Amino acid sequence: MTDDAIKEAGRKMEASVDHTREEFATIRTGRANPKMFDTLMVEYYGTPTPLQQLATFQVPEARTILIAPFDKGCINEVEKAVRDSDLGVNPSSDGNVVRCVLPQLTEERRKEYTKMAKAKAEEGRIAIRAIRRSTNDLFKKQEKEKEISEDDLARLEKELDQVTKRHVEQIDSLLKVKEQELLEI
Fold first, then answer.
1. Hey, what domains does the chain have and what are their CATH numbers?
2. CA distances to 24, 82, 112, 119, 157 from 11, in Å
3. Taking a C-beta distance cutoff of 8 angstroms, is the pair 139, 156 a contact?
4. What is the structure's pLDDT at 157?
5. Which residue has the higher pLDDT, 65 or 25?
6. How is the chain classified by DSSP, letter by letter?
7. What is the mean pLDDT of residues 14-19?
8. Phi-psi region for residue 46, left (φ > 0), alpha (ψ -120 to 50) or beta?
9. Residue range 94-103: average pLDDT?
10. Nearest CA to 97 among 54, 37, 36?
11. What pTM was computed for the model?
12. Which of 14, 4, 27 is closest to 177 using CA atoms?
């Protein structure tokens, strides 16, 4: 049962790492990436709809993204949603696709995005530590109720700390890669 708790904690921590990876993908770097538009909602026939469900994305050049809506009637709404977003792009439409040319990132904007990435990494670390804390509490409760011995408690806490350390290191390496992407000119 206790080893199952460590495995479960590991799965939850892995989910936190995956979530952090997805959060990093939404932060804009110098290159065009369709993941930047994951959180964008478009007013589609009166209903907020994720842009990913309304269009396909193409990246013909490093700093250009083409958004091709399935329904050409909503092209103005897509263009408006992109313009009103915090992505800092000015979309243009030719009636079939919305073209987004990403401007070169300024040094100030790069630093701002780096801060944002660090904040998202810290959120991921906090989530992992919360999982560790709740699993440790479970082990201490089991030890208090004499379900496991003190030696088992010490062994389990050590194993859990190793799992925690491994997942925190994964987030740190993801952050390092993201920072390199952001600072690359």
1. 32-99 (3.30.1360.40), 105-182 (1.10.132.20)
2. 20, 35, 32, 23, 17
3. yes
4. 92
5. 65
6. -HHHHHHHHHHHHHHHHHHHHHHHHTS--SS--GGGGTT-EEEETTEEEEHHHHEEEEEEETTEEEEEESSGGGHHHHHHHHHHSTT----EE-SS-EEEEPPPPPHHHHHHHHHHHHHHHHHHHHHHHHHHHHHHHHHHHHHHTTSS-HHHHHHHHHHHHHHHHHHHHHHHHHHHHHHHHHH--
7. 94
8. left
9. 85
10. 54
11. 0.72
12. 27
Residue 114 has pLDDT above 80, yes or no: yes
Mean pLDDT score, 56-63: 86
Tokens found for residue 119: 């904040």
- Least Cα distance to 105 among 30, 174, 6, 38 occurs for 30
Tokens encoding 167 = 């997942």
- Grade residue 14 by pLDDT with cuts at 50, 70 and 90: very high
Supply the pLDDT for residue 185: 61
- For residue 92, is it left (φ>0), alpha (ψ between -120 and 50) or beta? beta
